[in-house]
Amino acid sequence: MDLIRKMVLAVEDAPTGYAPDDLNVEGYTDEQIAYHARLMVQAGLADGIDTRHLGSSSPSAQLTSLTWDGHEFAAATRDETTWKKAMSIMQAKGGALTLDVVKALLSHLAKAGLDLLV
Predict the structure, then answer these.
(1) Is residue 106 within 8 Å of 114, Cβ to Cβ?
(2) What pLDDT sits at residue 117?
(3) What does the alpha-carbon distance between residue 74 and residue 71 come to, in Å, rounded to a whole number?
(4) What is the secondary structure of 21-72 as a DSSP string?
(5) pTM, whole model, 2 decimals?
(6) Where are the domains of the chain?
(7) What tens digit of pLDDT does each residue of 62-116 get?
(8) pLDDT tens digits, residue range 3-31?
């Protein structure tokens, strides 16, 4: 989940709105990035191009841009303190780090921070 967060934020920070062709995230291999790009496309966070071929060792994609959901995920995860709090809660509860659960938790934390919970 940390890699997906970093990739979403990197694409959102791109000046043109398009994902950089050479999207690199420190500590991760090109193969890991390509695989997580494919997951981001499948999850609806980004648009991209399937780059698998017969010699591929794993599913892969090249990101082109974020979707509306991708921008919302970026907004929800941009604050490092909120992100760390959400990940800490998930670990403490032993819950699965599914995208839907993470988004729901981040939304709850944002609402709580703005006193919007009723």
Answers:
(1) no
(2) 60
(3) 5
(4) TT---TT--HHHHHHHHHHHHHHTSEEEEE---TT-SS--EEEEEE-HHHHH
(5) 0.87
(6) 2-66, 79-113
(7) 999 999 999 999 999 998 998 999 989 888 888 677 888 888 888 888 887 776 6
(8) 999 999 999 999 999 999 889 999 999 99
Lowest mean pLDDT among 35-39, 55-59, 83-87: 55-59
Here the tokens at position 50 are 């399937």
Distance CA 53, CA 55 (A): 5
Place of tokens 């062709």: 21
Residue with tokens 């919970």: 117
Torsion (CA) 32, 37, 43, 48 in degrees, nearest 10:
-160
Q: Which two tokens stand for residue 110?
A: 């944002």
Task: Give one word for 48, left, alpha or beta, with left for phi > 0 and alpha for psi -120 to 50.
Answer: beta
